[in-house]
Write a structure and sequence with these properties.
Low-confidence stretches: none
Mean pLDDT: 89
Order of helices and strands: HHHHHHHH
Strand content: under 5%
Number of helices: 8
Shape: elongated
Distance between the termini: 35 Å
């Protein structure tokens, strides 16, 4: 548990620093998750053929994809809460002129909000939540999403 705590506290934040503003390819996200699973297996002394879900659940870890999504949503709300700043004005402009297929930051935010069944970015710009409310809401919605995702994977595997 100590090794995992060190990994999660020091290594993960440094390895993904700034990725919330970058548009990562699926291949790049997969590489991050693969590296994380490899390290978690080593930390726990598990063989390479251990199921991915077991690797995460044995130490109570969350996939790095969740951390990336949380960072995107946190960064978005930090900008929204500072309504008088140039960053917030740029974000407002991006929402207005955004192309649904584009690869800009607001599209990534919209996809992440949709993924976790949250309201649109326009709603949150008009009704920003404080840090505690936002963290709680995001935490609940992410847990709900991943719980359904795990159940769906188990069901597909057995049927």
């Amino acid at each position: 548990m100590v090794a995992y705590k060190l990994w999660r506290t020091y290594a993960v934040p440094r390895s993904i620093y700034g990725l919330e503003v970058m548009n990562l390819l699926a291949k790049e996200k997969d590489m991050l998750e693969l590296a994380e699973r490899k390290i978690l297996r080593q930390i726990q002394g598990l063989p390479n053929n251990t199921a991915n879900m077991a690797v995460y659940t044995l130490v109570g870890a969350e996939p790095i994809a969740i951390t990336l999504d949380k960072n995107v949503l946190t960064f978005f709300m930090n900008i929204v809460r500072n309504s008088g700043t140039i960053e917030c004005e740029i974000l407002r402009r991006q929402i207005v002129f955004s192309d649904q297929r584009g690869k800009d930051f607001i599209n990534r935010v919209e996809k992440t909000l949709l993924k976790y069944n949250l309201k649109s970015s326009s709603y949150y710009i008009e009704n920003p939540l404080n840090k505690i409310e936002w963290k709680r809401l995001v935490g609940i919605m992410i847990k709900e999403y991943w719980k359904k995702n795990v159940i769906r994977k188990k069901w597909k595997k057995h049927h």
